[in-house]
Amino acid sequence: MADFVGAIDQGTTSTRFVLFDRSGRIVAIVQKEHEQIYPKPGWVEHSPEEIWQRTQKVIEQACELKGIQAKDLAAVGITNQRETTVIWDRKTGRPVCNALVWQDTRTADYLLELSAKGGQDHFRQQTGLPLANYFSGLKIRWILDNVPGARELAETGDALFGNIDSFLIWKLSGGPHGGIHVTDVSNASRTQLMNLGSLDWDQQILRALGIPRAMLPRIASSSEVYGECQIGGMEGVPIAGDLGDQQSALVGQTCFKPGQAKNTYGTGCFLLLNTGLHPVQSRHGLLTTVAYKFGTEPAHYALEGSVAITGALVQWLRETISV
Predict the structure, then answer these.
(1) What is the tens place of the pLDDT at every residue in 199-235?
(2) Which of 167, 187, 182, 314 is nearest to 243 (CA)?
(3) Concatenated DSSP letters for 212-276?
């Protein structure tokens, strides 16, 4: 009988794997940091391959700590840094460039171009989000426009996009050999490409940004079996949960009723407020986003307030300032 569940927590500065027993008690946890890459002022990158290697290592080491094998795991789920954008080759699994991290600001020129046409709220009605460097859609466009060969790969259907959740699920489930290309509604809502009403990719926005739909993952719920792990030592374990990190904190704090909220202090600082079954547009600068969707149940929505740099400043000081 499977007595444990595993959770991959892939964050902005590190990757953790946590094992829980049937009572919800943590029985093992392993964490490894990855490099923060700053090629230019305002540019922030991660190596997707380094993150994938870290993910495999923390899974392996946490299971070794307790002598846990694949047969002991009922399922594994993932929570991840949101908006961080990866595009990779479907046939080889290799990223076309480093991941563009949610903090990255290189899309500023695109913001000026789009806001000149429709103001800061150009896509807010459909997506709940103002124009900002934050979200994945403009990062995809930047990669397609600036990385040699990326757009050609996308036009032929051989380029896949994902936030970190999609990239890791694809890798875990086989990669080039049958990997599943999927994301959940909470992560999809952070791309500025998903329509909050239909919970599907918005074709009008895709056309406006020049993004081929074929490169986007299937949007699923936050809690269902997407597929099975195929990596060594984890073969056959169901991959059964996917939530963006801030939404997973909302769920973890059991904020299931409208009006309940959580505040999280990490790389950034994020307040999420459950607004129930209907998206609420803020008049005071908050973001409207999907909170979670469990199986076939209706989606729940949230309002979000964000401070991008908090804990990240401490790490930057540690890594760049010598005493």
Answers:
(1) 999 999 999 999 999 999 999 999 999 999 998 778 8
(2) 187
(3) -GGGSPEEE-SBS--EE--STT-TT-EEEEEEEHHHHHHHHTT--STT-EEEEESSSEEEEEEEE
